[in-house]
Amino acid sequence: MQDDLFEELHLRRVINASGTLTAYGQSAALPAVVKAMAEALPQFFEMDVLHARASAAIARVTGAEAGFVTGCAAAGLTLGVAACMAGVEPAKIAQLPDTTGMKDEVIIQMGHCVDYGAPVTQGIRLAGAQVKIIGTINSTPRNLFAASLSSRTAAAMYVISHHTVQYGYIPLRQFVETAHQHGVPVIVDAAAEEYMLPEVIAAGADIVVCSGHKHFRGPTSGIMAGRLDLMRAAYAQNRGIGRGMKIGKEGIIGLITALQLWEQGDRAAIQLAERAQVQRIVERLKDLPGVYASEVWPSPDPYPTTRAKVTVDPATAGLNAMALSVMLAQGNPSIKTRAHHVEEGYFLLDPFNLSEADIDYICARIETLVKRPFLEKQALVQELAGLSAADLIRRGAGEWPLLD
Question: What is the CB-side half-sphere exposure of residue 31 using CA atoms within 13 A?
């Protein structure tokens, strides 16, 4: 393969201003992680022992009894459910996803049934479990949760994400307390909230799942942390339904390296540097007609960071936020914004994966696009009329050039 893989594979370059979204490759792995993975690839290991070393690293970072590394966070959710149903019993492990004779219900609040690129409920069903949704979008009383637990309940799942409903739900500590009163383990999906792992473990969660390749800047991987017996049960699924979700030697080595670097890192200094980048964007765009950039702390997203909020006034700019975000993505390099809120008139620029050169290019591109002819901008606005952010994501997912 040539040195330039973009040319070799006919790929468009991407500037990732979306943060850590899976659709664009999450995050750039740290150089030390890349080096460790490259060194691991030609070597051989006793994989059981290597997994044990990863378990110790995860336990040290999270405060959990043990940990386990799998292919991705989504795999971790499925394996967590399987672990709660089958334990380490070989017959049950071999039987899944047939759950005959097992506890097989997993309870989840309706306001937590989010789509992270696939429905979280599908990840539960992949293990063979039955999903039991309780409450409504904006109301799940604690006594309803307690009344919903039964002899068939294998686990209860809780999702920490800005995508979930932000009011009317059961707080984590009360959720854990209620489940434990009935002897039910709690699985927490904290895929993009790695920094919260110690807090969630301390709240009593039995299994916590997060990504290894978002803010940890490790390889594509999923981290499971929690009770020792359940981590052993999750690992046992490598000889069951987890076989297709396993991670390779280089992934484990890379993740251990990323966790070590996370422990050593100065996250306060990183946040200050990211804020300076956002302020640079705000300053650069302040005089552009119809575009209003501001610095925001992106509540309800739990991750502690600052982002640039770019609000577009259609009357002045001649286009809306959705059209501007799409135009940014159409170029080469393609600029990927955090476009969850384009229907509300704005998008976000996340500094996590951006260099100073990236910021300069993004701002220059926005200036150029806003100054394009009015009719050209309006044509795209009309083309996108009636679409939602979800429609744009689905439309993009369908544009897979199989015959290119």
Answer: 0
